[in-house]
Design brief:
Layout (H helix, E strand, L loop, with lengths): L2 H25 L8 H12 L5 H19 L6 H20 L10 H21 L7 H12 L3 H20 L1 H26 L11 H10 L1
Helix pairs in contact: 1-4, 1-5, 2-3, 2-7, 3-4, 3-6, 5-8, 6-7, 7-8
């Protein structure tokens, strides 16, 4: 294993655990179904309370990855599957070590903001390693390939479907928080990924360019 691959695995592992922590400590206490497989798992746990949220998420992601390989192809590599497993296992571990977790902050809105911020950063870090934590981006890609909708629209459709299920599970307030959360999630991921790719180019126009270049490069 070369150093670059090892670095990717380490970053992907930490990012996946970060996503899991955001879901468990900030979304689950207030039943915030903010799209994705995490939101769907939280909603399903309302109807089938005997199964841990992490187990739901792992099962859903396994199904989605099978569909991805069958309908899209093998571009979803081993690192994506690894990230998905780490995320789900970390969530199960949190549930075992800290059962019946209580809210970290006082209001659902602040919990939603912090939770989405934490998970979005984790997702962006994973995407930057050319991996995926599974979930609604797979649904979005399937819709993009077979129904020719934009990827972002496909992901939004999948996330909005989760919001609807969250409404039936936990009511209108949870659904409203989820809609705000979906939008905030997209903004944070975009900003983090943009930050990774930002470069600054400076042009200096001068008749003394050779001396300036010498100074910048060597001094």
């Amino acid at each position: 294993m070369n150093s670059n691959t090892f670095k990717k695995i380490i970053i992907t592992t930490l990012a996946s655990v970060l996503v899991s922590a955001g879901v468990y400590f900030f979304m689950i206490p207030y039943n915030l179904t903010i799209g994705g497989t995490a939101g769907l798992s939280i909603a399903l746990s309302k109807f089938i309370p005997g199964i841990p949220v992490g187990a739901f998420q792992l099962g859903i992601n396994v199904i989605l990855f099978i569909l991805a390989f069958l309908l899209i192809g093998s571009e979803f590599g081993g690192l994506s599957i690894y990230a998905t497993v780490v995320l789900s296992v970390a969530l199960i571990v949190f549930e075992k070590l800290i059962p019946n977790v209580q809210p970290v902050v006082d209001t659902p809105f602040m919990s939603m903001i912090i939770g989405v911020g934490v998970t979005a950063i984790g997702i962006a870090l994973t995407l930057n390693q050319n991996a995926s934590t599974g979930g609604t981006d797979i649904v979005g890609k399937i819709l993009n390939k077979y129904m020719h909708v934009d990827l972002s629209v496909g992901v939004f459709i999948a996330d909005f479907s989760v919001v609807v299920m969250g409404y039936f599970a936990y009511g209108i307030n949870a659904a409203m928080y989820a809609i705000v959360g979906i939008l905030f999630n997209a903004i944070v991921i975009d900003k983090v990924l943009t930050g990774y790719k930002t470069r600054i180019k400076v042009y200096i126009n001068s008749r003394y360019w050779e001396g300036i270049n010498e100074f910048i490069v060597h001094e």
